[in-house]
Amino acid sequence: MPFSLDRERIADLEDESKRGELLLTKIFENSENSNDIDVELADQITGSPAKEKSELPKILGLDANLSELANRIMDRPKWSRAELVLLTNSLDLMLDGALESINEASYDILDMPLLEGDDPIEINPEVISVLKS
Amino acid sequence: MKNSSVSIRPKDRDAILLSLRAGVVPKAGQHLIQVGRTREIETLLRDIERIADGGSGFRLIVGEYGAGKSFFLNLVSSIALEKKLVVASADLNPDRRLHGSAGQARSLYSELMRRLSTRTKPDGGALPGIIEKFIATSKTEARASEKTVEEVIHKKLEHLTELINGYDFASVINIYCRGADEGNEQLKADAVRWLRGEFSTKTEAKAALGVRGIVDDASVYDQLKLMARFTQEAGYAGMIVALDEMVNLYKLSNAQARNGNYEQILRILNDTLQCTAIGLGFILGGTPEFLTDTRRGLYSYPALQGRLAENTFAKDGLVDLTGPVIRLTSLTPEDFYLLLCKIRHVHAGGDRTKYLISDKGIEGFMIHCSKRIGDAYFRTPRTTIKYFADLLAMLEQNSGSSWESIVGAVDIIADTEISGNSEIGDDEDFASFKL
């Protein structure tokens, strides 16, 4: 049988795929563009001002302890797991749980993780640039 | 073919193209190359929302080899992760089944737990993070309510103790917490080993953790129910278990072994229909014969045949997606054409001005494949997709070349990795030996 494509079926399929694409885009890319971030969200991302001088600003809507950890981690582009275990312990946190919570918050707001990899653990430069901007 | 002009992140683009060129289903970004099947996706999305609402779900995704079952399972898993569910996925094989008496079910459970994923850990290994997130939340609550952490954990996990293995499960979470407080890494590792079902004897588990039970072949489904409830306590919306290559159960030559597995499926299905598996959903991928073969398939088990029987009116293009079975039809040339257009779009990073091959060129590529390997190019498309992704890579690196000159120089070979239906013996009942 000679090769042929049914143009009508392609058009129907395109329409259906567009509906699916919209549905999936809504699920996967809900906060894709940081251009659309409103003021309240911007506060969550870059942090509300610190109440005390020694306190680092809260970021990504995290609580005080996790914000402090995230702020300290962002000082360097890369950490070994052992270094981060020490750092989290000093803040009365557990590393895997803290990474999960920080990245979840980062996904919620920026749709990408702040921290990547298991050992070493690297800082996502895209998140840093959003935070700086 | 018009695609949306939203840019695609280089990381997503590379991950998709690398998977396609390696001939495997992408683990992320599947939505960027999804063609059609919108109603099926909507149905599974409703399932996910019901599970997140404390309900349960069971879907059997049935399709021929190459119809896109694994792709669909991965897409649904990615949607579940986005919706803040935890996903446990595994392929069944002769040593990994839902039921067994020589460690096969425990082996499946261990694999599921090793590959436990969250949105932030989509490649598996999420279990320690889930446990620690639960403990961290409990610590915060303890500080706020002036209770001890143990009291808060006990209160949160009390309802688990009503379930089989629930008491030991709660004890092991407490042990992990103690290990973390004391800086005892061995205790934490042993607790994770227990939760992953990696203790093979009760003596070993008692020595390491002081608990009496272990996850064994008989308790795998109950343990999954416990884990689903635990994930909800840790702040997730629930758990999806995605099992692919279910045809391996159909291939079991021993009827008793097959029926033991089908009995587990019946138990899962009954729990779903009665909504007793809270926050837990199953999605299983299998071939048509795995479902309908009345000698060895699910239909050979009368209670399952009754529950899984499809709507007799669902034929000639009519579908009923309210039943537990979702059939994925094999790709048509038109589906395949749109799929290649989407791959081209991903390759161009979502920028239509960077397309390396025209619509006519894609059609020409399909004609070329059709002449070389016949209908197999779209019916079992893995190899053809790989060739297309390779072709795009070549066009990108050799800007002066035409697709015709590149394709003409390569032999395309049909994908022959068709899942056979040859029987698998069962070592439980027959000793195997070699001469």
Structure, described:
The complex is a heterodimer of chains A (133) and B (435). Chain A has a 3-stranded antiparallel sheet with strand order 1-3-2. With 133 residues, chain A is mainly α. Chain A has helices at residues 7-28, 39-46, 64-73, 81-90, 95-110, 125-132, and strands at residues 78-79, 115-116, 121-123. Helix content of chain A is 56%, strand content 5%. Chain B is an alpha/beta fold. Chain B is built from 19 helices and 5 strands. The relative contact order of chain B is 0.15. The model of chain B is unreliable at 427-435 (pLDDT under 50). The chains are: A mainly alpha (133), B alpha/beta (435). At the A-B interface, helix 1 and helix 5 of A face helix 2, helix 3, helix 5, helix 15 and helix 16 of B.
Summary tags:
heterodimer; A: 133 residues; mainly alpha; 3-stranded antiparallel beta sheet; 6 helices; elongated; B: 435 residues; alpha/beta; 5-stranded parallel beta sheet; 19 helices; disordered C terminus
Distance between the termini of chain B: 60 Å
Shape of chain A: elongated
Mean pLDDT of chain B: 90
Order of helices and strands of chain B: HHEHEHHHHHHHEHHEHHEHHHHH
Share of residues in strands of chain B:
5-15%
Taking all Cα atoms into account, the compactness measure Rg of chain B is 24 Å
Tally of DSSP helical segments of chain B: 19
How does the major sheet of chain A shape up? 3 strands, antiparallel
Tally of separate helices of chain A: 6
